[in-house]
Amino acid sequence: MARYWDIAKKFENGHFCPFCNEKKQDIIESRKYFYVVPARAPYCKDHILIVPKRHVCLLKALTHEEIIQMFQLVEKRDKKLRKYHKNISLLLRDGLSKEKIWKSVNHLHFHLIPDHAVYVMDDQHSENRNFLDDANYKQLVDKTRKKFK
Known about the structure:
With about 150 residues, this protein is α+β, with helices and mostly antiparallel strands. It has 4 helices and 7 strands. It has helices at about 5-10, 65-80, 125, 135-149, and strands at about 1-5, 30, 35-40, 50, 90-95, 110-115, 130.
C-alpha cells in the first residue's frame, strides 16, 4: 500500500484519469452510463464509488438520463449497504480545485460512505489515507462483489 496523496499527485496534471482507465475486472456493477467500484483509497470498510463512464467534471454536465441512472444506483447501493451499516453518507466530488481542498481526481464521482463521519480533512487525516496496491484491491473487489452483488 502507498500513501494516497503520493499516488494522487500523478493525477494532478490531468494527463491520467484513474476513472477513465478503470479495469473491467474491478467493476462490481456496470450500467449504460455509470459503474460501481469499491473505493481504492477507502475512508472506511465498505466504502464504494459510483462513477460516470464518460469523462465529466461537473454534476451539471450530466444528461437527464445519466442523472436518473445515477440516482437509481445510489438508491440500490444505499439499500445494500444498509443491510450492514446504520448510516450512509453520500459525498459528491465534482470539478477540481487547484486549492488544497482534498479533491484529487478531475472526474465527477459519488462516494457512498458507511458509518463514517464526513468532515473537512486536514493534513493529519489526509496523510493517514492509503491507496491499495493491485493485489489488495483485487481482494477488496472480490469481497465487495460477494457481499453486495
